[in-house]
Amino acid sequence: MTRPSKSSGPGDPAPSKSAQQAKKLQDDQVMSTNNSSIVSKRSVEKLYHPGEAHYFRHFVRKFQRRAPLINRGYWLRMRVVDTLVRDFLRGSASRATERENAAAGRESKKRAVVVNLGCGSDALPWQCLARYPESCAGANARFVDVDFPDLIARKRETVLNTPDLRGPLTGLKESVSPGAGVVLESDQYVQVGCDLRDLKTLRRGLEVAAGGRLEECRFLFVAEVSITYMETAAADEVIRFASTVGDAEFVLLEQILPDGPSHPFAATMLSHFTKLGTPLKSVDVYPTVDDQHARFASCGWPADQVCVWTLWQAWADARFLQPADRTELDKVEPFDEWEEFAIFACHYCVVHARVGGEGQAMASPTKRESSIPVPIQAGAVRFDECQGQRGQRRFAAAMRLDGGEGTTGRQPTVLLNVLGLGTKSRLQSCDVFGLGGEAAGDWQPAAALREGGPTPRMCHTLTDLGKHGVLLAGGRESPSSPFKDCWLFDKETSSWRRTHDLPVPLYRHAATALGDSGLALLLGGRGKSEASDACLLYHPEAGWIECDVAGARPPAAYGAAVACGSGSDGGVYSGILTGGITDGLVSDRILGPGDRIVGWEVDVSDIKKPTITFTKLKGSSEQPSLAVEWLLKRFGATCFPLGNHEFVLLGGVTRDTIVGHQDEIIIFSVAGDEVRLVRRLEWPAEIPRPLLAGHSAVILPDSNSVVIVGGGATCFSMGTHWNKGVYTIRLQDRLGVDGEKEAAPAVSAVSPRWVHQKTIDILPGEKSFPPLPTTAARTALADGGSSAEMTPIPRVKLDSADDFERILRADRPVVIEGLNLGSCVSAWTLDYLVDKVGADRKVVIHEAASQVMDFTSKNFKYVTAEFEEFARRAGRGDRLYLRALSRDKPSEKPALLADDFPTLAEDFVLPPQLAFVKEKLFSSVLRMSGPVNMWLHYDVMANVYCQIGGSKRMLLFPPSDVERLSFAPGASSSGVDVFSLLDKPELARTHPHEAVVSPGDVLFLPRLWLHTATPIGGDVSIAVNVFFRDLDNAHYASGRDVYGNRDLAAYEKGRQDVARIANSFKKLPAEAREFYLLRLADELRERARTG
């Protein structure tokens, strides 16, 4: 690490004390970046180099296994630097041998000196001595570590006190030349502690390390993400200084901004380092590989002796990796974070420069053509933002359900983004987006209420087969655990049913519907350990059929994009297939039928023996093939047909460069064996730019608009970028003259907007009862009274505490009348509460977007407001809800009215009849709400709900209904709006209980009864909810439980047991695993019913 602040020079005024403190703080923050880096390098060392001596372990106190993405990124960083250092050592040894042979010993050979600038705790010297002993000896190599004096002092102590580090060093001197910053010297290794701006001290230190004059050595300077923390001018001086020492090379690895600071990864990266207090200083001045090349050329390094790669280019360069190297990595740990890896690697560059030596000009990586004559259109894009974390999922798949005529009139159009990866894990749910505001809330999918659906997964496909439903195929759990089960989603009944399994488990395959035939074509994919060359046809009755391939078969690949462009009554369909990954690189393939219209052609006239033909396409005369291919051959992109032989390609990553903001959305056409780029859509500056990786997309019926939902990426170790809304992209053709940009008309701001309506759980497993009836049948059933039978909750009076204990033993809800709750029932008006609580008392409230609050989809936000403001807004009918928290320690202690609102506590009393409640008290919570419905949930503790002001309608369901009301495993809340479904067949198998509570009423809620509430009458609802423990304390989970809603200890342990049991079946074939787990599930059900 290097010092980022400017050093004082002769004649400069002495810095003030505050300036010195700020400088020291900056130094410490830069040094701290070393800590994270060496932990990651230690992870790579242990996992990827098990047969080598491990040196990073001496600098890392505790091993931490990093995520596969970080491991692979650091592996590549270390591999590139290691390769360039290795080549330098080998070249130095070879040249020394040549001199000896030529001069017969009359000329001393040049010593090779490797200088690690800002070395931190890097173990490069010991790794090279162990890996390349002959080259190190032949080059008389010496390694020099340079960094902050404080950091070097700590590293010195570690080296001196660690036999594995000290052992390889001979001629060790512990204190050499403090004036030159040298604190440790040996025949092989030197430590120099100095500020890199102090180039005089650095030169003196290098002279000591060189054992004489600098020109008698060959130097390799290495700066691995170090001098970027310096002011740019000072960093450039270091580069310039290195070019003056004689025979020298330089290896620089640092961040770049290949598509500018607005790229989501770049913005996340810059924000991350700024928050750490270590902003990247050079990246704005040298944002591209061309800028870095010019930087070195201007700092004394011959332009023809400077080569710059991005790390993504280095990944594909045979100098650094062979195909076998890339394949071997997957054997260490399975990997599927390709989009994130590519985007990360495109934002780092490595520079290799030479000066003063012998040799030919360096061969730079192939530059991609950037001046392709393709019109750039300012994209017509509308962004509909989602609140909070709503809609955040990646590697899901989306489907469109068009509105039709239902029992209540025209139904809304909705999008479902199904399964995928959430903020913490794979999701067992789907996001519902409605077009036209709250109208989409009328859509009530049966999948939210009933069993039967796919398990959590990602990297699957959804293919719309028209009246046959939407086909979900494959997907994966982990990169080495693919699925082969397939499901059909019935659009009419909104339910899943299992269909024919794939012949082999696959994920990252490409799938497309063949026109309106009800058939689907699936190409490629990845199995458990390798890519597939599958060419499969799906038939709703016959299942999956292997296609015969006429002619050349494309190589096995996964993550490609496919689309069907045309079909005929004769059963011949054609389309495009592009990209994918083969052997760890984005494929070069763009395949098509040669003399046909588009890329591939499949003949399904004989459904028992379908045939497919592939032919490679080429660019047109004005658009060379290479230029076209680098834009179209992508991994993780989506592709749709637009008609007239045109297609649109969105997102993904390309082989060795970033997909820029002008290239993310490409419209192209195919005619004969030629593919032609028609236009590029550029993101409008005023629209938040999405990261088109892991996104889901659907095309609207007019084939003129694409809707993108979800997506984003883990930005290496710097955070995660989530796309925060819905993007509607108009694809109409508005071409400029001679390729000039022309603004397209904006998507209408007054047209219906997409709204994230809810998140719905999908309960996994086969259906345990018949499919739901069709729309017509459901209408008939509804007319015939097929709905849940409502049970009124009885109202009782209590004469004594014994009466309440009898209610407890009965374990059924009741409304208790006639209790004396104190003066609160008559006194607690809004004005009174504001006066007693304090107008400026800060409270955290729920601010809802609609009347129906949904904890699952979080269609509300938490807002801190003054109590008077909250009371005023609630009184005028705003959708607000207050659930009071502990005033002193809201994240640690349960709420208690006496402690949190002491000025109100004397107004509220628990009468003698509720002595048991008072004795077993856990919390007492003030609740106030405007016109909002509480979401459906259960409480683990029994409680009494004391209505003080206003009235509420309460709906309760017995614990046995939990299976029918879409409670995900481990969740105590559901997204089902039961109020809107009471007269629908979807709730026919439930057992609702109902009560209306008015001021003075007390509702007893037994533990685990599912309940929800809606205010009635228009007044603000005011209540005190008192929770108490009616079980032995040993039954409750230990640890923090602020809300009193942590599941019982037996359930928490049981979930761990379930995970362990499921894991014990993991190695069985899928059918056997499912068979036995379902049998165990039946046993659990039986025990639940019989005790």
TrEMBL record:
Key word Transferase present: yes
InterPro entries the record matches: Cupin_8 (IPR041667), Gal_Oxase/kelch_b-propeller (IPR011043), JmjC_dom (IPR003347), Kelch-typ_b-propeller (IPR015915), Ppm1/Ppm2/Tcmp (IPR007213), SAM-dependent_MTases_sf (IPR029063)
On the tree of life, the source organism's domain of life is: Eukaryota
* Reaction catalyzed: 7-[(3S)-3-amino-3-carboxypropyl]wyosine(37) in tRNA(Phe) + S-adenosyl-L-methionine = 7-[(3S)-(3-amino-3-methoxycarbonyl)propyl]wyosine(37) in tRNA(Phe) + S-adenosyl-L-homocysteine; 7-[(3S)-(3-amino-3-methoxycarbonyl)propyl]wyosine(37) in tRNA(Phe) + S-adenosyl-L-methionine + CO2 = wybutosine(37) in tRNA(Phe) + S-adenosyl-L-homocysteine + 2 H(+)
**What start-end ranges are recorded for coiled-coil regions in this protein?**
none
Q: What Enzyme Commission number(s) does the record list for this chain?
A: 2.1.1.290, 2.3.1.231
Q: Which Pfam families match?
A: Beta-prop_TYW4 (PF13418), Cupin_8 (PF13621), LCM (PF04072)
Q: Where is this region: Disordered?
A: 1-36
Q: Where is the composition biased (Polar residues)?
A: 17-36
**What residues does the JmjC domain cover?**
899-1045
Q: What keywords is this UniProt entry annotated with? A: Methyltransferase, S-adenosyl-L-methionine, Transferase, tRNA processing
Annotated pathway: tRNA modification; wybutosine-tRNA(Phe) biosynthesis
Q: What class of enzyme is it?
A: transferase
- Report the transmembrane regions from the record: none
Protein task: Probable S-adenosyl-L-methionine-dependent methyltransferase that acts as a component of the wybutosine biosynthesis pathway. Wybutosine is a hyper modified guanosine with a tricyclic base found at the 3'-position adjacent to the anticodon of eukaryotic phenylalanine tRNA. May methylate the carboxyl group of leucine residues to form alpha-leucine ester residues.
Q: Record's family?
A: Belongs to the methyltransferase superfamily. LCMT family.
This chain belongs to the protein called tRNA wybutosine-synthesizing protein 4
Where does this protein come from, organism-wise?
Remersonia thermophila
